[in-house]
Amino acid sequence: MFDFIKYKYVSITFSTILIAVGFGVTFGKYGGFATSLDFDGGLRAVVEFPENVERKNLEEYFSSKNLEAVLVLMDKDKNDYQIDIGLGSVDQIKQLYVERKGKDSLEAKQASAIDALIGLLQEDFKLEKKKILSANQVGSVVGAELTSTGISLLSLTLFFIMIYLSFRFQFKFALGAILALIHDLVITIAFIGFFQIKPSVPIIAALLTLLGYSINDTIVVFDRIRENAGNLRDAFSQIINISINQTLSRTFNTSVATLISVVAIIIGGAVELYDFAYVLTFGIILGTFSSVFIAAPLVDIYDGLSKRWKRS
């Protein structure tokens, strides 16, 4: 039987180092998180391209113009693509359009960024006007609203989980679970920054999903601790250790089975789902780790501190 409680401070230190490295690289090397249209604003157009135009052709086209574009296949039969371009490329698009039309062209100088993008696409891909299904510029106000909504959703999720666990178990278990969930959330955000994954609505969905997955594993361990506490006369730390070992095989099997379905998205899924799958894969592994090495040990630490406080 492995003694998980013996290494509780080692695991907490390891997690702290991961967080420091993740955010250190995010802000030290990249200067912050990657920008995305959903959160920072930019240009978005949905275009029906000719049948002979493939994703590879579009990627090469935007790359040749030094434009970072996110392509989403909306309709495979009609070859409709959603094109997202961040605000950082707006000036470049306007410049390209002016160069195309001529520096003396008043029309080019007065054209908005979205008009310039559509103009370039129409000329380069010989598109009729009706092939431009939609085109608009998303402002940073929308991004700020999405950011606020995402934070609110995550905060409410943590709040209701804590209320439920306080009612279902004891406060020390609720506290341990919430701290473990915050731990999962912070490290995953550091992971997103480290690998410069663009924040988006699907990424928020992945974060909420991993919170639900992590708390599921944690509750299984806590339920066994509560059961053993009523049947065994060992010290509380030893009961926690016994409970973790008893539920370890179930936790491992559940994680592997879940990972198979998520990895399947990476192997055979759409490119648009890759970031979602990467975050979810990391979150599942992290959630399993925190249920065993973070949540239960934190309960043990809190229990020890509370007993010392009562004695004094």
From TrEMBL:
One Pfam short name: SecD_SecF_C
GO function terms (MF aspect): protein-transporting ATPase activity
Keyword Transport in record: yes
Gene3D superfamilies documented for this protein: Multidrug efflux transporter AcrB transmembrane domain (1.20.1640.10)
Predominant location: membrane
Record InterPro entries: SecD/SecF_arch_bac, SecD/SecF_bac, SecD_SecF_C, SecD_SecF_C_bact, SecF_bac
Gene Ontology BP terms: intracellular protein transmembrane transport; protein targeting; protein transport by the Sec complex
Coiled-coil region: none
UniProt keyword list: Cell membrane, Membrane, Protein transport, Translocation, Transmembrane, Transmembrane helix, Transport
Entry keyword 4Fe-4S: no
TM stretches of this protein: 7-27, 146-167, 174-197, 203-222, 252-271, 277-302
GO cellular component: plasma membrane
Topological category with respect to the lipid bilayer: Multi-pass membrane protein
Domain Protein export membrane protein SecD/SecF C-terminal: 129-300
Quaternary structure and interacting proteins, as annotated: Forms a complex with SecD. Part of the essential Sec protein translocation apparatus which comprises SecA, SecYEG and auxiliary proteins SecDF. Other proteins may also be involved.
NCBIfam families membership: 2A0604s01 (TIGR00916), transloc_SecF (TIGR00966)
Function in brief: Part of the Sec protein translocase complex. Interacts with the SecYEG preprotein conducting channel. SecDF uses the proton motive force (PMF) to complete protein translocation after the ATP-dependent function of SecA.
Family assignment from sequence similarity: Belongs to the SecD/SecF family. SecF subfamily.
Protein name as annotated: Protein-export membrane protein SecF
Native organism: Leptospira neocaledonica
Lineage: Bacteria, Pseudomonadati, Spirochaetota, Spirochaetia, Leptospirales
Gene: secF
